[in-house]
Amino acid sequence: MELVFASNNKNKIREIQQLLPSTIQILSLTDIGCHEEIPETADTIEGNAILKANHVTEKYGYNCFADDTGLEVAALNGSPGVYSARYAGEPSDANANMEKLLKALEGEKNRTAQFKTVIALNLKGKQELFTGIAKGIITADKSGTEGFGYDPIFQPDHFQETFAQMSAADKNQISHRGIATRQLITFLNSIK
Question: What's the pTM?
Answer without folding.
Answer: 0.90
